[in-house]
Amino acid sequence: MTVNDIAAPTPLTPGRLSELTTEVAEEVRQGLHELHFDAENRWSVRLRADDYTDVWLISWTPDQSTRLHDHAGSLGALTVVTGELVEHYWEDGLRTRTLAEREGGRFPLGHVHDVVNASDVPAVSVHAYSPPLTAMHYYEIADQGSLRRTGSILTTDPEPNVPTLEAVPSSAAAPGERRR
Fold it and tell me: pLDDT band at 8, cuts 50/70/90?
């Protein structure tokens, strides 16, 4: 049995989440959602939330990235609105794919990845999680090339304050926004 075969705790599928991020990405292109960029920290805002899904808009300036992580018990999807993002993901070893404007990825349960803006221009992406995020697990590649979990946190935010990452005062963000 592979990770893709595991039943999820949600009626939504990665395919439906991908359709949702594509729809919301088009809303962003049409100017229906305000964007911010911060050279120091990724910026994010929750655009939608219900019992089954939360949808986030995230901006990335050059060299901003996440750490290697999964979304605990949530499925996910992302669509690149503008720019280009590189995803490093674990699939019997670390693999890499580039996601250009209007492209995206789907994340089954247990999908471990890191996302980075490796280009010299800002990027914007839309992310959806179902069920809504409750936790994230962080990983590293061990000396022998295996994946090793280094920690877990409870969070409802795809941009959580992780003790090993620089913390940004939450007072710097408007209501509903997170800066990281």
Answer: low
